[in-house]
Amino acid sequence: MKLKTAILTAVFAGLAFAQPQPPLMRPADLDHLVAPIALYPDPLLAQVLAAATYSDQLTDAQRWADEHHYLTGQALADAIANDQLPFDPSVQALLPFPSVLDTMTRDLNWTQQLGDAFLDQQQDVMDAVQRMRRQAADFGYLRSSGQVVVSTGPYISITPVNPGLIYVPYYDPGVVFVAPRPGFAVRAGIRFNFGVNLGVAFQPWGWGYNRFDWGSHVLIVNNAPWRRTWSNRATYVHPYTVRRSAASRPPERHVIEQRNERERQAYQRGDRRIEQHRAPPRGRDEKGKGDGKGNDRR
């Protein structure tokens, strides 16, 4: 019986990855595809491109992030690890970034196209990112700031001023990749309001070890080249300290607090973090061990 179940599981897994290879995208189409994320700092862009290749997991990941959004820092890292989430580590790595998950899940068709393109045309996608960055830099929008350092050598890299503090840029692709109209303040074209303090807590998910070798067209995630392609996507496992859990999830041990509309609008606009669920709900004991209903104190 176990053998039959294993065979059926393998068959269904094979069917899931039996879709035809997507047609090659032209440079102009790739430019349009990467425009919403091309100006992300390199470490964040690395995780986004990797996670996009697992686009089918992002909706559930965003739901988990919404339900646990009051957790930050080490408490959030502990919750991700303890909940044995069934998402690839590249997807788990984006759980501290609700605005990024929102961008990726609001248009899953775009996200799947991005992931498929990166699986099939990794070098072309990286070239498209460079073209869009060059346009934004040439028009004066992309420049170093208090949040990022922009290098403008043969290849444009965007690195955080503080490697442990990642700011998400907010910009309109219809603005920053075209010549500014006379009198327009180009410095207002890109905003860096929403920062996530990762520190050492999120190193197991690759943070602090992500970068691009732009000249060689290699993406480095957790200090190792990202080698997932269209042909090996069913079996590829990237080296992370953490692993995607294949076991059944344990009972929920954290309070479920849905993000309210004010909080949601704040991160969608790129405003500074608004949190209205700081105090734990009533009914918990003083030692933080829970109320007997699966809720614990964090």
Protein architecture, described:
- The strands form 3 sheets. Strands 5-6-7 form a 3-stranded antiparallel β-sheet, with helices on one face. A two-stranded antiparallel ribbon has the order 1-2.
- The longest helix has 17 residues, at about 120-140.
- It is built from 11 helices and 7 strands.
- It has one domain.
- The chain is an alpha+beta fold.
- Helix 2 (about 25-35) crosses helix 9.
Radius of gyration over all CA atoms, rounded = 20 Å
Number of helices: 11
Order of strands, main sheet, comes to 5-6-7
The amount of beta strand, in percent, is 5-15%
Proportion in helices: 25-40%
Mean pLDDT figure: 84
String of helices and strands: HHHHHHHHHEEEHEEEEH
Summarize the biggest pleated sheet: 3 strands, antiparallel
**What is the distance, rounded to the nearest whole angstrom, between the alpha carbons of the first and last residues?**
43 Å
Structural class call reads alpha+beta
* Quantity of strands, as a count: 7
The domain tally reads 1
Shape: globular
Q: Which stretches of 5+ consecutive residues score pLDDT under 50? A: 4-15, 279-298
List keywords for this structure.
298 residues; alpha+beta; three-stranded antiparallel beta sheet; globular
Task: List the topology elements.
Layout: H1 2-16, H2 27-34, H3 42-52, H4 58-67, H5 73-82, H6 89-92, H7 98-106, H8 108-120, H9 122-138, E1 148-152, E2 156-160, E3 165-171, H10 173-176, E4 190-197, E5 211-213, E6 218-221, E7 224-225, H11 261-269
Antiparallel strand pairs: 1-2, 3-4, 5-6, 6-7
